[in-house]
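Input (structure):
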C-alpha cells in the first residue's frame, strides 16, 4: 500500500527530481530526497497544507521561487526519467523511509557543516552533502 496516491506520471516526475537533486549522492541519496517529497505530500502542516499530490509538491512555489531548485535551474530535471530512478521513486511511494530523511520535510546543501537548525526546524542528520531537517516536536503529527 502506498503512502500517497500516485500515477505513473507522478513516478516519472518524482524520479526526475530525485536524480536532479541527488544523483551525485547515489541511490541512497536519491531515496532520501524521495522521502522528503513523499513527506511533503502527506504533511498537513507548516508550509505544506495545500500540497497533496507529487506534482503539487514538485512545483510548489514559496516566496516567489520553486521549492526545489532543480525546477528552475536543473537541466537534469528536464531529462526523461530512467528506469533506475523510477524504481527508487516507487520504493519511496510504497513506504521506504529511513533516517536521516525518514520524517524530514527539508534538506539543503550548505557547502559547509550542517547547522543545528534551519528556520527553527531541528537537524535530523546528514548524508554526503545534504543536511536534513524534520519538523519541531509537536508541530506536524501527520509526518510521523
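Output (sequence):
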Amino acid at each position: 500500500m502506498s503512502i500517497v496516491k500516485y500515477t505513473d506520471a507522478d513516478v516519472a516526475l518524482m524520479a526526475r527530481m530525485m536524480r536532479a537533486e541527488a544523483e551525485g549522492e547515489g541511490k541512497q541519496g536519491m531515496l532520501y530526497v524521495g522521502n522528503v517529497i513523499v513527506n511533503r505530500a502527506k504533511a498537513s502542516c507548516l508550509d505544506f497544507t495545500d500540497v497533496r499530490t507529487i506534482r503539487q509538491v514538485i512545483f510548489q512555489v514559496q516566496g516567489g521561487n520553486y521549492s526545489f531548485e532543480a525546477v528552475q535551474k536543473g537541466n537534469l530535471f528536464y531529462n526523461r526519467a530512467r528506469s533506475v530512478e523510477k524504481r527508487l521513486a516507487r520504493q519511496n511511494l510504497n513506504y521506504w523511509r529511513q533516517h536521516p530523511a525518514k520524517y524530514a520535510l527539508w534538506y539543503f546543501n550548505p557547502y559547509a557543516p550542517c547547522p543545528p537548525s534551519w528556520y527553527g526546524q531541528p537537524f535530523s542528520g546528514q548524508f554526503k552533502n545534504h543536511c536534513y531537517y524534520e519538523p519541531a516536536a509537536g508541530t506536524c503529527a501527520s509526518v510521523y
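Notes: The chain has a mean pLDDT of 95. The radius of gyration is 14 Å.
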